[in-house]
From TrEMBL:
<feature type="binding site">
    <location>
        <begin position="85"/>
        <end position="88"/>
    </location>
    <ligand>
        <name>AMP</name>
    </ligand>
</feature>
<feature type="binding site">
    <location>
        <begin position="10"/>
        <end position="15"/>
    </location>
    <ligand>
        <name>ATP</name>
    </ligand>
</feature>
<keyword id="KW-0808">Transferase</keyword>
<dbReference type="Pfam" id="PF00406">
    <property type="entry name" value="ADK"/>
</dbReference>
<feature type="region of interest" description="NMP">
    <location>
        <begin position="30"/>
        <end position="59"/>
    </location>
</feature>
<feature type="binding site">
    <location>
        <position position="127"/>
    </location>
    <ligand>
        <name>ATP</name>
    </ligand>
</feature>
<feature type="binding site">
    <location>
        <position position="36"/>
    </location>
    <ligand>
        <name>AMP</name>
    </ligand>
</feature>
<feature type="binding site">
    <location>
        <position position="31"/>
    </location>
    <ligand>
        <name>AMP</name>
    </ligand>
</feature>
<feature type="binding site">
    <location>
        <position position="92"/>
    </location>
    <ligand>
        <name>AMP</name>
    </ligand>
</feature>
<keyword id="KW-0067">ATP-binding</keyword>
<dbReference type="GO" id="GO:0005737">
    <property type="term" value="C:cytoplasm"/>
</dbReference>
<dbReference type="InterPro" id="IPR006259">
    <property type="entry name" value="Adenyl_kin_sub"/>
</dbReference>
<dbReference type="InterPro" id="IPR000850">
    <property type="entry name" value="Adenylat/UMP-CMP_kin"/>
</dbReference>
<feature type="binding site">
    <location>
        <position position="200"/>
    </location>
    <ligand>
        <name>ATP</name>
    </ligand>
</feature>
<feature type="binding site">
    <location>
        <position position="161"/>
    </location>
    <ligand>
        <name>AMP</name>
    </ligand>
</feature>
<comment type="pathway">
    <text>Purine metabolism; AMP biosynthesis via salvage pathway; AMP from ADP: step 1/1.</text>
</comment>
<dbReference type="GO" id="GO:0005524">
    <property type="term" value="F:ATP binding"/>
</dbReference>
Amino acid sequence: MRIVLVGPPGAGKGTQAAYLAENLSIPHISTGDLFRANIGQGTRLGQKAQEYMRAGQLVPDEITIGMAKDRMEQPDAAEGFLLDGFPRNIAQAEALDGILSEAGTALNAVLDLEVPEDEVVKRIAGRRMCRNDSGHIFHVQYNPPKTEGVCDVCGGELYQREDDHEDTVRKRLEVYHTETEPIIDYYKAQGLVVTISALGKVAEVTQRAMEALGRGPEASRA
């Protein structure tokens, strides 16, 4: 299957992408991983991207599109992939259609993870990170530490990232509504969008997604 995963910040795209890719036996291709891999390997596209990033400028669409194209042409993606964070605007969506058309393939579905805006703010603004390199994450409501401000695992100080402050989260949502959300209508016109609620436990959302993609228990018995 060839799937695009969309949803606002805080919808759990990264978590769901990992589980869905494993269940569907296809690679999870995220924009973040594409940039890290290309910059780390010193590819031509990675070097160009780094030049823009060092100058504090946005990386042009053509560079991101080129990275995604190269990754989708790798052998492990021959039978499908799950795209997470790409495409992020109409121009990238149109480019993806062109890439797939040239390869004689097409998307099977665009999975839209739906979360109310207030819930998104609550999820992100409530996150607390450990200052140590452990990478442990807590949440003031959903996964609070035993001692406020202290990591249960290593005893490190917990803090709130600047990106997680409520005003910043709402600005990120504005960017999502302006730049990325329009691709949902773009793909609806192609009959590809499957919308599911991303509320509830991780396993529940994964099962909901698998069933929506026709890969749940009901589909298995059909």
